[in-house]
Amino acid sequence: MQIDTILYLQNINDNIDAVRRIVDVSNATIANEISAVNTMLVAFTIVFGGVGVLLGVYISWLQRKVSRMSDNIAEKEQKIISLAKTVEETDKKIHSDIKGLYYELRDEETMALLHRLVEEPLDISNLSHLLFARSLNAEGYAVLKQAYTKLKSLGPEIDEERIIEPSFRQQYIIIFFQHYLRESILDEDLRSDITKEYGRSMGCAFKRDIIKSTEDFCMALSDRKAQFDKVSLLVDYLKALNQSKYNTLVELKNIFQDKLDSDLLVEAIDKCTTDKVYLALFGVEAPNESDVPER
Question: What would the 3-class secondary structure string for 65-97 be?
Answer without folding.
Answer: HHHHHHHHHHHHHHHHHHHHHHHHHHHHHHHHC
